[in-house]
């Protein structure tokens, strides 16, 4: 069942520059405190959705050209919302719940922890300070970061697709690829992400097969309020 659903999702989202990776809700809930649990049975089928470097040209630009008069908030969020919501049409006989990466609960907590979902699905390895044996940071707060085996840090986690009526007790978990293998590289990755994230060097911690285009790099390096101009959108759209 999972393979049939995954195949249909890849057919719908793959050509637009998205990746989907299956997991069971129980895998996610097992590694998090109750406050962050997804409210579904453990065997519920879910997918984490990533945007790859190709999404900018294959999904965002066409979306902006077609919907420019309807864009009233962040164009990327609206584009992702349109594509993920469109998935429901591919499953007319199934309930599909969608959680976007930007959604928050009344408590101000995110509705799901994106990097944990990517890790348990096998999509990308979530490197944290616990992955470093000789921790050099003392009392400093150190945030973890996901690394994709193909794209390094040149990707984003956009949302979850959950199928409440599909239970997959036999689904086998595949661990994410541990692509930052040495202690030195892991320290370098976390140092760059926590203290030099603006220069984006952490994204190239491994040899990547594809990165953002120069146009895309400029877009995401530009303050959100000024990105509309880069896409040829008016201030009214903002």
From TrEMBL:
GO terms for cellular component: cytoplasm. It is found in: Cytoplasm. Its EC number is 1.16.1.6, 2.5.1.151. It catalyses: apo-[alkylcobalamin reductase] + methylcob(III)alamin + glutathione = S-methyl glutathione + cob(I)alamin-[alkylcobalamin reductase] + H(+); apo-[alkylcobalamin reductase] + adenosylcob(III)alamin + glutathione = S-adenosylglutathione + cob(I)alamin-[alkylcobalamin reductase] + H(+); 2 cob(II)alamin-[cyanocobalamin reductase] + 2 hydrogen cyanide + NADP(+) = 2 cyanocob(III)alamin + 2 apo-[cyanocobalamin reductase] + NADPH + H(+); apo-[alkylcobalamin reductase] + an R-cob(III)alamin + glutathione = cob(I)alamin-[alkylcobalamin reductase] + an S-substituted glutathione + H(+). InterPro entries: MMACHC (IPR032037). One of its GO terms (molecular function) is demethylase activity. Pfam families: MMACHC (PF16690). The keyword Disulfide bond does not apply. Its cofactor is FAD; FMN. Its main location: cytoplasm. One of its GO terms (biological process) is cobalamin metabolic process. Keywords: Cobalamin, Cobalt, Cytoplasm, FAD, Flavoprotein, FMN, NADP, Oxidoreductase. Belongs to the MMACHC family. This is Cyanocobalamin reductase / alkylcobalamin dealkylase. It comes from Pterocles burchelli.
């Amino acid at each position: 069942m999972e393979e049939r659903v995954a195949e249909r999702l890849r057919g719908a989202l793959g050509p637009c520059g998205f990746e989907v990776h299956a997991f069971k809700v129980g895998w996610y809930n097992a590694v998090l405190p109750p406050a962050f649990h997804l409210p579904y049975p453990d065997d519920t089928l879910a997918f984490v959705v990533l945007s790859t470097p190709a999404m900018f040209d294959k999904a965002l630009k066409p979306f902006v050209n077609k919907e420019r008069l309807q864009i009233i908030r962040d164009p990327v969020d609206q584009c992702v919302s349109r594509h993920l919501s469109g998935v429901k049409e591919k499953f007319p006989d199934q309930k599909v719940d969608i959680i976007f990466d930007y959604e928050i609960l009344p408590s101000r907590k995110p509705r799901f922890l994106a990097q944990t979902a990517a890790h348990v699905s096998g999509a990308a390895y979530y490197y944290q300070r616990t992955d470093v044996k000789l921790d050099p940071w003392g009392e400093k707060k150190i945030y973890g970061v996901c690394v994709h085996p193909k794209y390094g840090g040149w990707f984003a986690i956009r949302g979850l697709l959950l199928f409440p009526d599909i239970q997959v007790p036999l689904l086998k978990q595949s661990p994410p690829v541990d692509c930052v293998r040495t202690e030195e590289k892991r320290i370098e990755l976390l140092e760059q992400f926590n203290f030099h994230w603006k220069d984006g060097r952490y994204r190239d911690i491994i040899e990547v097969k594809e990165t953002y285009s120069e146009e895309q790099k400029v877009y995401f390096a530009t303050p959100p309020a000024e990105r509309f101009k880069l896409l040829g959108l008016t201030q009214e759209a903002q």
